[in-house]
Amino acid sequence: MSNEFRVVGKRYPKMDAWERVSGQAVYVSDIYLPGMLYGKILRSPHPHARVAGIDTEQAKALPGVKAVLTPKDITDFNWTKCPGRGHHDMPILADIARYAGEDIAVAAAVDEERVQEALDLIKVEYQPLPFVIDPEEALKPAAPKVHPAGNLVGGKPVVLNRGSVEKGFQEADLVYEARYSTPLLQHATAEPRVCVARWERGRLTIWDSLQHTFGTQAGLAYVFKIPMSKVRVVCDYMGGGFGDKIQMERYSVLASILALKTGRPVRIEFDREENFLAAHHRYPAVCYLKYGARKDGTLTAIQAKVVANAGAYCHLDGAMGVLETMKGVYRCPNLKGEGYTVYTNTPEGGAMRCVGHPQGQFAQEVHMDIMAHKLGIDPVAFRMKNFARLEDGDQDKKIPFSSNAMEECIRKGAEASGWAQKWQKPGTSPGPVKKGLGMAIHSCRHGAMALPSAGMVKVNSDGTVNVLIGTADVGGNQKSTMAMIAAEELGVPLDVISVTTADTDVTLDTGSTAGSKQTITAGNAIKLAAADAKNQIFAIAAGELKTAKENLELVGGQIRPKGSDKGIALTAVLRKAPATITGRGTGSLLKGAITHCFAAHFAEVEVDTLSGKVRVLNIYAAHDLGKVINLSGAENQTDGGVIQGIGFGMTENQLFDLDTGICVNPNLVDYKLVTIKDIPEIHIQFIEPLDPGGPYGARGLSEPPYSVPAPAIANAVYNAIGVGMTDLPITIRSILESRNRGAKA
Amino acid sequence: MSNEFRVVGKRYPKMDAWERVSGQAVYVSDIYLPGMLYGKILRSPHPHARVAGIDTEQAKALPGVKAVLTPKDITDFNWTKCPGRGHHDMPILADIARYAGEDIAVAAAVDEERVQEALDLIKVEYQPLPFVIDPEEALKPAAPKVHPAGNLVGGKPVVLNRGSVEKGFQEADLVYEARYSTPLLQHATAEPRVCVARWERGRLTIWDSLQHTFGTQAGLAYVFKIPMSKVRVVCDYMGGGFGDKIQMERYSVLASILALKTGRPVRIEFDREENFLAAHHRYPAVCYLKYGARKDGTLTAIQAKVVANAGAYCHLDGAMGVLETMKGVYRCPNLKGEGYTVYTNTPEGGAMRCVGHPQGQFAQEVHMDIMAHKLGIDPVAFRMKNFARLEDGDQDKKIPFSSNAMEECIRKGAEASGWAQKWQKPGTSPGPVKKGLGMAIHSCRHGAMALPSAGMVKVNSDGTVNVLIGTADVGGNQKSTMAMIAAEELGVPLDVISVTTADTDVTLDTGSTAGSKQTITAGNAIKLAAADAKNQIFAIAAGELKTAKENLELVGGQIRPKGSDKGIALTAVLRKAPATITGRGTGSLLKGAITHCFAAHFAEVEVDTLSGKVRVLNIYAAHDLGKVINLSGAENQTDGGVIQGIGFGMTENQLFDLDTGICVNPNLVDYKLVTIKDIPEIHIQFIEPLDPGGPYGARGLSEPPYSVPAPAIANAVYNAIGVGMTDLPITIRSILESRNRGAKA
Asked: Which residue of chain B has the CA closest to A507?
């Protein structure tokens, strides 16, 4: 494979940046349809309560109110086994509220004020029930039951076994155990959940801020018992997803039902508080780790027990998501994992820039650092010794990685950070303001190819190109990246390419924009589609030029025999085509290998042990993402991931009052996001092994940069003050209290 | 080819009928964009005048006015040689008005009232010039020149020659000469011209009521010097085109320029008067015919001189459009044609349910009837003797027709009308209220395959289907017809199909919805695309069923070996597909044959010779359109064509005052459309030879039903009163004046 690319790997501005920043981009909340109504959901004020009665008469009588629906009004629709939705434990509207903020009723009215007034007029008689917020409490036999079958999702833990951990611990010179915890975090997307639903006779169109329009198409077809061809889901511009928007949710169904019942378009748009109380979040996890290692640093056993807080409904098996980290980042012959995904009376957890890997990464990387210290081994050397090699891949199924430059990530990151010169043993930094250098590595299955993977490319008669791809552009440069791949493959300039995304009527499904997979999944499809189009064009040109099509190239708008400077114009060839040239491509899975993405982050911090303030000075982020397609985009993703990851490490924490079960900080004032003042210098390095599974050797990137800053910072703090940081976020209190904990670690 | 179809040839409701009649369909004038401005064009009150000065200061100063443009403000744009536009003789805005209604300036403002006020405030100093309205007058040397190069378009007539008309006249027993004329007619679409243009950075989106979105995409890319991929033209619903909307027009360019200059979306919507004064129309034609025939009825010579009134700008070579009729309906070894397309100070002529064939049909069919009478031959027998046979086709290039059931059209139409029983010699009907039976035949190149022809079909995972086709649905059942073809070919129910039309971003070009060609042009593409999709599905099923894919059929949602009742569900097969199945198809031209559509109409009338009133009692319409795909659609087209054709024959006539050059009836009160009371019983017969060039043997239909009612009615009146009707429309005055003309004919 040639390393010489014309477009791929270069820096270009995001193709819709101007529209986004100038306000010209039409987001869902910019859509106003004639006669459109405003829908709003009535939410439970109680974390757990039975709805004993509900009176909507006054609300319905309010002028301008067009519909008020309670659970009994929506029994006609398919829902329970809706494809693509978690454990089918969530009703569309609840007659038992299982968290404070749960959907109890919904209304639609002519304006936003009127619909709020309607909600205020609904009289609900709640019978409060005992509730539980903490997942470890929820596992106790006497705990209030969130669902009748009990609080352990699936009724039993998920279990992983490889080799024998008992044997591993026997072989170990060091066995170290500790408990780690991570908080409940919000995506804090610029754009909260929002949709506009419209029915035209038997056909539903919904504009929805979604990472997976096709999943919602299938879901809505199921709900309304109509053909998928009668459901159109469109997501043109999106103000961020980060996992909150990866499947069809209740609000989309409610808007569609309201639109059906009123015969008018209906918008439902969450406000910020609703997005805190009733959208997904990163679920908190508690990890009990017990690892064994020999004196030389070789890991002999990994044992992990994970308790993940699913919230009131189980979107995904959260504990398993965390355990994947223990399973695959390091090579180890002996593994035992136990995962408990637990219902509590908190909002439904879900994906957030990955699912559970960041929680697991934090626990494992802090654990590894403390072990390195106890073994007297440099943390870099300890990782170098143990990271899963190319041949390790899936250690249970014995399938190698498709490519792996973890070693180079660690080495280059260490070099950039000045590790050899700066690193000192934990707790040896003098004075009250201590310096620390820490690191963490990352490996996960994200950024890998997945199915479906299908795309189309149209070549207009003037040689310009329209790319059609089902991928939602969540703000992560998906449009630009697809344009670059099409331009590279076709041999045309980048600026003649337009991209249509995420419209189920006219584009092809590439799955959700999630799992960091669209560069490779949609990228493979578009590369193949462009190659298909080029092949058709070259076939015509070959006839004109009396040569074999394999012998041709497209350069500067001319198609010519390779090496020749005489050819014919692309536009002249296109005039010979019987119709618009359309290329289509369907990507396929790489066989005999699994694909991971790899990273090593190094954090340099300054800890004021008197005030408790931690300042992150530098992050050195080395990423193996295969061949970089979109350099600006990759840098942008890395910057964004690091910044959000610092929030994970140091500021963000959605809190519930344990006495009332109510969230106390459902807003961006009290829930602390990182601000521009908290952001350190971010030094990015990309290591680019050509992966055989991706377009031009690419893999994905989006989730890994988020996963590693928190443990790297925790380890830098550990390095500075000599006390391991076992709980996130690392706050002033963490540092001040560490004086007491110091003795223990 | 099997004659047994599951869907094709049956009656189904138009798939978007409900949306259209319920007001839910979003036409262009239903599109309101945030910040949208209203554009309006200032029109010349003079038929010919130089603009000596133009003062826009007051208009610009009016609050709410965002732009006022005159010719000097728009010189930056490419226009002159714009592809797809007539003779490049029209400016975007004129500094010499060449017809009353011509575009002089344009303004945009925040609402419709304000923009009208702005136009009222523009001060234009006109220097009136001499003008000419009548095309025969315009050919005289002393006539005012509409353009500097003279009034004859192209500077010389178009000439046709086959054999020797001199020889033909020598061989003839009868040589008959006469003059015929047809009026200026309006499409009178339910929806006048309208567009909304919006720029997002370098990208233009325009919603435009257009029969050819892709042509306008190319045109706007040319005007603004941008890639075609940066121009999106969308036409979802349209309220009729009939030829008025077959290419990019000035209003679309002006709206796009205003949107560019103001940075806001701009709508320009014609009112009814503007559509009369400044949109296309059917151009008037004068035909001088001189035909020769032997005693036995054999035509020996056809000589025609046509003067067509192009209007102030030449959209198309109108005289040639008329002469095509003389060239091809009848077999004749000797032909001479001379065509004069002439500029006058009237609005630009254009296509209207065909181009010039109806004008030619009227003249020729009336001429043929009078000759039949002079020869003492029954008009049916005279046509039977002379119509161009299957082998005749293009009589100059010696290429046969692809199929031809003209004989059956004539025979079945005659039978249905009771010709043998009812027909009497012209002028023999007794009493003051006379009965008449007349006929006319039609043959034209419309309804034939054309390029480009490309389409796509997506099969969703639930076995339902989205059809993507560039064809504009002008109200002529195009969506329904494509759905029927896809359903037939794939073997799925019709109601699981959705159709997306006419969006240049996401569909493929099938040329304009004009020339009655989309059933065959888009139809071939969709049939091939559906077959391609089915082939991919069967390939997967064949693997599952361990049989050859050629051996499979899809019946009732099951794929099974032919003849077997055991198979697997389509949805199960689709789950095995790596991605959404996408079929694509590109139709191609039939070789070695030309395709025409054929018809014979029979009209029965009652003429009150005292009052001059003509009542059409019955129209018997026999059409050869190849295999009928969409039976309800074809009946609907035929009814619509007959009704509009009766208007052509009897009521419609846009008139200009010869002293002022001003149109005197630019509205639907004074311009008389046929009403429900004027419509006779319409008896339709379809003759369906399977044409080798079309999907399932289909050809097109739309234009022919319009072309024949007028001459059939004229001949029925001739039959009733014995006086030939040489000028349209046939009014009370025509009948009353015929008493004087009776002696001559």
From this structure: B506
Q: B458 to chain A: which residues are within 8 Å by CB?
A: 508
Domain carrying residue B580: 17-24+450-586
> pLDDT of A427-444, one tens digit each?
999 999 999 999 999 999
Rounded-to-integer distance, Cα A96 and Cα A480, Å? 45
CATH number at residue B227: 3.90.1170.50
Q: Is A703 a catalytic residue?
A: yes
Contacts of A497 in chain B (CB under 8 A): 229
Q: With CB atoms and an 8 Å threshold, state whether B462 touches A221.
A: yes
Distance in angstroms (rounded) separating the CA atoms of residues A216 and A201: 19
Counting the structural domains of chain B, the total is 3
Residue in A227, A454, A580 closest to B496 by CB: A227
Same domain as B460, residue B425: no
Identify the weakest region by mean pLDDT among A268-282, B81-95, B101-115, B324-338: B81-95
Report helix, strand or coil for A538.
helix
pLDDT of A201 reads 83
User: What would the mean pLDDT of B434-463 be, rounded to a whole number?
Assistant: 96
Instruction: Answer yes or no: do B34 and A30 touch at CB < 8 A.
Output: yes
Choosing from B586, B611, B637, the residue where a domain stops is B586
SS3 content of chain A, % helix, strand, coil (to 5): 30, 25, 45
Predicted pLDDT of residue B3:
55
SS3 A58: helix
CA distance B4 to A213: 39
Strand partners, B622: B600, B685
Cβ separation of B228 and A25 shorter than 8 Å?
no
Distance, in Å, from the CA atom of A387 to the CA atom of A711, rounded to the nearest integer, reads 16
Mean pLDDT across chain A: 96
Whether residue B629 contacts residue B12, with contact meaning beta carbons closer than 8 Å, is answered with: no
Q: Which residue of A has its CA nearest to B525?
A: A579
Say yes or no for a CB contact (<8 Å) between B462 and A587. Answer: no
Nearest one of B160, B134, B155, B172 to B325, comparing CA atoms: B160
ipTM of the complex: 0.91
For A139, half-sphere exposure in the C-beta direction (CA atoms, 13 angstrom radius) is: 18
d(CA B477, CA B468): 15
Nearest by Cα to A87 from A355, A325, A318: A318
Q: Which residue of B has its CA nearest to A23?
A: B200
The torsion angle over the Cα atoms of residues B472, B474, B479 and B484, rounded to 10 degrees, is -120
